[in-house]
Amino acid sequence: MPHVRRALLLVAHGSRRAASNEEVRRVAARLHATGAFDHVVAAFLELAEPDIPTGIEHCLTAGVDEVLVYPYFLSAGRHVSEDIPRAVAAKQAEHPDARITLAPHLGAAEGIGEAVLRHARQVLEEP
Predict the structure, then answer these.
(1) Percent share of the chain, pLDDT over 70
(2) CB-based contact 45:52 (threshold 8 Å)
(3) Structural domain of residue 80, as residue ranges?
(4) Residues near 48 by Cβ (< 8 Å), separated by ≥ 6?
(5) H or E element: which one contains 37?
(6) Of the candidates 71, 96, 99, which has an alpha carbon nearest to the alpha carbon of residue 7?
């Protein structure tokens, strides 16, 4: 059975502050280093590049079979519930044969509360 090549598109809001955008790119690089996905790209809703359509296109031209668009957002505001799905749907319409999946946002992930508690404990234990 052939290996299904998968890409993860980590979508953040984007910031005028370059260091904030670089932080997201570093997270994407760490995720890529795990080997869990064949291709990992950071993309941004606004204020930074690449935007979501460009990020999806980058994944598809890298030769992946499936793109998982992952909103790196803690709550389901307008961007998560409207803007990101709209951008994904438009790109899916351009590439009807591609498998582009929109994941629930980070804040909806099972275990997010435990991760917050774990991090809070680490902060309190640091010298």
Answers:
(1) 100
(2) yes
(3) 6-125
(4) 14, 15, 21
(5) none
(6) 99
Distance CA 123, CA 48 (A): 30
What are the residues facing 9 on neighbouring strands?
A: 41, 69
HSE, CB side, 13 Å, CA atoms: give it for residue 43.
Answer: 27
The pLDDT of residue 1: 72
d(CA 51, CA 86): 13
Q: What is the predicted pLDDT for the residue at 94?
A: 97
Backbone angles phi, psi at 34, to 5 degrees: -70, -20
Residues 65-83: pLDDT tens digits?
999 999 999 999 999 999 9
Phi, psi at 55, each rounded to 5°? -65, -45
Q: Which tokens go with 11? A: 């979508």
Give the domain CATH number at 68.
3.40.50.1400
Helices and strands, counts by H and E, the chain: 5, 4
**Any domain includes 45:** yes
Specify the number of domains making up the chain: 1
